[in-house]
Amino acid sequence: MITLYTGLGSGNAYKAELMMHMLGVPFEPVSIFIPKGEHRAPDFLKLTPFGQIPVLVDGETVLTDSQAILCYLARQYGGDQADHWLPMEPVSLAQVMRWLSVASNEIQNTLTMARAAKLLRWEIDYDNAVKRSYKLLTLMNDHLANRDWLAAEHATIADLACYPYIFLAAEGGVDTRPYDAITAWMRRVEDLPNFLDMPRIPNLPPVELTPPPNV
Ligand SMILES: N[C@@H](CCC(=O)N[C@@H](CS)C(=O)NCC(=O)O)C(=O)O
Prior knowledge:
Elements: E1 2-6, H1 11-23, E2 27-31, H2 42-47, E3 55-58, E4 61-64, H3 66-77, H4 82-85, H5 90-107, H6 111-119, H7 126-144, H8 157-167, H9 180-190
Parallel strand pairs: 1-2
Antiparallel strand pairs: 1-3, 3-4
Bound molecules: glutathione.
Glutathione binds at residues 10, 12, 34, 39, 51-54, 65-67, 104.
C-alpha cells in the first residue's frame, strides 16, 4: 500500500492525491500539520531532509516533489493511459516537462507565494507576487485561448500540476475570473473522469481580491 504524507491546504500534496484518485490507486494518507512544525520532526526529516510535503512511499521507493510524484504515478500506475498522462515521445515529453517547470517555478513563485503571504503570513513582497501572478495568468490565458490543454491535445500531468494553485488563487487575493480561457480550462480539468475536489481549509477569513489589470 502506498503512503502519502500530505496536509490539508497543500496544493502540492493535493496533486498527488488527485492523480491517485483519478487512477484508482489506493493509498494511506498521513497528515503533516505544517503550522505545528510537524514537517520539521526528526522522523519526517529522515524521509526528506527538505522537510516538505508531499512525500510518497511505495515499498522501498521514497519520492518527494509533487511533479516527480506525478511522473512516477503516471508511468507506474497509468496502465494503458500512461502515454496519455506522460508521453515518452521526445517532443511531447518536453512539452509536458515545460509545464511541470511552470508549476514548480512560475506558479509556485507567484500565486503560491501570494497565498502563503495571506494564509501563513509569510513576509514576502505581496504586491509584487500579485503583480507577477497576473502577468503569468495573462500568459497562460493567451496560451489556452486556442487549445483545451496545456501540453497536448488531451489532459496530461501538466494540467494536474498547474491546476491547484490557480484554483486556489483567490485565497491569495488573486482573481482568476476575468481570464476566460483559464476559467474554461479549470472546468475541463474538473470534468475529467474521477476528478477529486481539493479538500478546503474550513472557515478561512475572506481575502480581499486585488483587481486584475485589464485583460
Ligand atoms: N517542489 C515541491 C514543493 C513542496 C512544498 O513547497 N511543500 C510545502 C507545502 S505545499 C511545504 O511542505 N512547505 C514547508 C516548508 O517548505 O518548510 C513540490 O512541488 O512538492
